[in-house]
Design brief:
Blueprint lengths: L4 H18 L22 E6 L2 E6 L10 E7 L12 E5 L4 E3 L5 H5 L7 E4 L8 H8 L4 E2 L8 H7 L4 E3 L8 H7 L4 E3 L8 H5 L2 H6 L4 H21 L8 E3 L2 E3 L2 E5 L4 H8 L3 E2 L9 E4 L1 H8 L4 E3 L7 H7 L7 H4 L3 E3 L11 H5 L4 H12 L13 E2 L2
Parallel strand pairs: 3-4, 5-6, 5-8, 6-7, 8-9, 10-13, 10-15, 15-16
Antiparallel strand pairs: 1-2, 2-3, 11-12, 12-14, 16-17
Helix pairs in contact: 1-8, 8-14
């Protein structure tokens, strides 16, 4: 049987304490293959140990990348190994950092490094209770809007590094930040196709704090719960048909068949109606096209920020034509919000695909998880 979210969080906390206690050795010892696994599902990064140093490659930093970025992580006080000149050298464990995506926040929380964040663009987006306490105490500087961060303020913080993301080879403002002398590390978790691949980027974050064993302990629990939940659907005899997405203007955006969201629906035993499309991006379709294919879908999962059926109907009366709308089988994933309105699903979901999968199984096959209470999702009324 799958564990309840409360049990999972309890076990994770215990594992975290064990992992953190192990990390407080005065001398860093590189983990062996028996200690940690790197990586198992993630395709976007790799790590090679050379003594106490770590050679890290982000293989696919953005869509269509033909080469990656290389980082050399060297322990404080150790000599720097020979390396290619384009390799970025980082002294570890780092003292602090600036992050640019809310998905980076749980990676810090779950390895016990919440207190290392000192700057973030638009802190209102952050939902983490632990991090919000830090923000409210004035220990995390709001750097303004992501694409036009206050670089002068950022430079004044003198962070050990900035963890960012990019959609293309033109790093944009990240390039300017590098020119200021702030090391920029690219986190490309969003490109992973497997849900557990995205979760595995907790191991990437852990490299900068020498917290590999703690991260591996956390990931193993997430992995085991995901796989155990997935195994439950092997017994099903039928799969409900599923519609997803909503209109933005005149275009309906929904996950393509190889998309991360489509993989979760598949693993939950759902018949996602666009599962045969080969892209791993999002499809852009007309209302008529979607209606023609999904008007009789059994479930509609993923409707943006809408909180009720009446709100959906007010936004677009044609939504009421769909069978799941008529039968009140519409589910939002926006039920959990932070103190300032940030989405916990968007923040924590990458690291906790096991909780998303449990929700989806509960929605599609409630008899398989009779005791599970929806965590991220809610049925709209």
């Amino acid at each position: 049987m799958s564990m309840s979210p409360k049990s999972i969080l309890c076990v994770l906390f215990i594992s975290l304490l064990i992992g953190c206690s192990k990390s407080k050795k005065e001398t860093y010892v590189s983990p062996t293959s028996k200690d940690v696994s790197y990586p198992k599902y993630a395709e976007g990064f790799s790590v090679r140990y050379e003594g106490s140093s770590k050679f890290v490659e982000v293989r696919y930093p953005y869509p269509g990348a033909i080469h990656g970025y290389n980082y050399l992580l060297v322990q404080k006080g150790d000599p720097i190994p020979a390396h290619p000149k384009e390799t970025i050298v980082i002294t570890i464990p780092i003292d602090n950092l600036v992050c640019t995506s809310t998905t980076h926040i749980p990676l810090l929380d779950y390895i016990g490094e919440t207190d290392k964040l000192i700057g973030f663009p638009t802190t209102d987006y952050i939902s983490s209770v632990k991090m919000r306490r830090r923000i409210d105490a004035g220990k995390v500087v709001d750097l303004g809007v992501d694409k036009v961060m206050n670089l002068e303020m950022l430079f004044s913080l003198k962070p050990s590094m900035l963890m960012g993301y990019t959609m293309n080879s033109d790093l944009g403002q990240l390039k300017k930040i590098k020119e200021l002398g702030v090391p920029v590390i690219i986190n490309a978790e969003y490109l992973e196709k497997h849900p557990l691949g995205r979760a595995e980027w907790i191991k990437f974050m852990a490299l900068f704090f020498n917290k590999e064993e703690a991260a591996d302990s956390v990931f193993q629990i997430i992995e085991n719960n995901y796989l155990t939940t997935h195994e439950l659907v092997n017994s099903i005899s039928s799969m409900p048909t599923v519609l997803s997405g909503i209109l933005y203007g005149d275009t309906w955006f929904l996950p393509a068949g190889q998309n991360y969201a489509a993989r979760l629906l598949k693993d939950a035993g759902c018949n996602y109606l666009w599962s045969d499309s080969e892209s791993n991006d999002y499809l852009e379709l007309s209302f008529e096209s979607v209606y023609g294919k999904a008007k009789d879908a059994q479930l509609w999962i993923g409707v943006g920020a809408y909180q009720s059926l009446s709100e959906i109907n007010a936004a677009e009366p044609r939504y009421a034509k769909f069978k799941p709308f008529k039968e009140s089988m519409v589910y939002s994933n926006n039920v959990r919000q932070g103190a300032k309105g940030g989405s916990e699903f968007l923040e924590l979901g990458y690291l906790r695909p096991d909780l998303i999968l449990m929700d989806l199984v509960k929605i599609a096959h409630p008899e398989l998880l009779p005791d599970h209470q929806l965590y991220f999702h809610q049925r709209l009324k």
